[in-house]
Amino acid sequence: MRLLLCLLLFPLLLKAEDPPAPNYVFWAEFVRVVDGNTVAMDIDLGFGVWTHNQSLTLLETGESTLTEPEKQKSQERASKLRELLTESTEIIVRTVKDKNAKPPRYLAEIWADGTCINRELAEIP
């Protein structure tokens, strides 16, 4: 009887553990700056698989609009972004898919040589 009870309860014990959350962190190579909020990267997906010229929008940096002061700010951000990424030897990207955007886009947090690019750009007035 105990054996039968153990066999019935064992699968329930295995299901009680939650699966781990996905972790989308990749090595990347800088390609170009599209604008003050968007970059193109070659991303190493692992096992010899790469995606080339992938457009990534920086996470939590806001949207650029067409007003004149914001255009200038976007240009300043683009030049700072280019400056930070061009000379970097090690770039790490953490991505999140924005499912609400049409078409879907990838939001990214980028580290270049240990510096969080998103935080550096957030400090631009």
Compose a concise summary of this entry.
The protein is α+β, with helices and mostly antiparallel strands. It is built from 3 helices and 6 strands; from the N terminus they run H-E-E-E-H-E-E-E-H. It has helices at about 1-15, 70-85, 115-120, and strands at about 25-35, 40-45, 50-60, 90-100, 105-110, 115.
Description:
There is one protein chain. The chain is of the alpha+beta class. The chain has one domain (23-122): Beta Barrel (OB fold (Dihydrolipoamide Acetyltransferase, E2P)). Helices cover 31% and strands 38% of the residues. The protein contains three helices and six strands. The protein has helices at residues 2-15, 68-86, 117-122, and strands at residues 25-35, 38-46, 49-58, 91-98, 105-112, 115-116. The protein has a five-stranded mixed barrel. It is globular and about 80 Å long. The mean pLDDT is 83.
The arrangement of helices and strands along the chain is: HEEEHEEEH
Structural class: alpha+beta
Please report the distance between the alpha carbons of the first and last residues: 72 Å
Largest sheet, if any? 5 strands, mixed, barrel
Got a strand count? 6
Widest sheet, order of strands: 1-2-3-5-4
SS element count, helices: 3
Q: How many domains, as an integer?
A: 1
Going by CATH, the architecture would be: Beta Barrel
Low-confidence stretches: none
Outline: globular
- Kindly provide the name of the CATH class: Mainly Beta
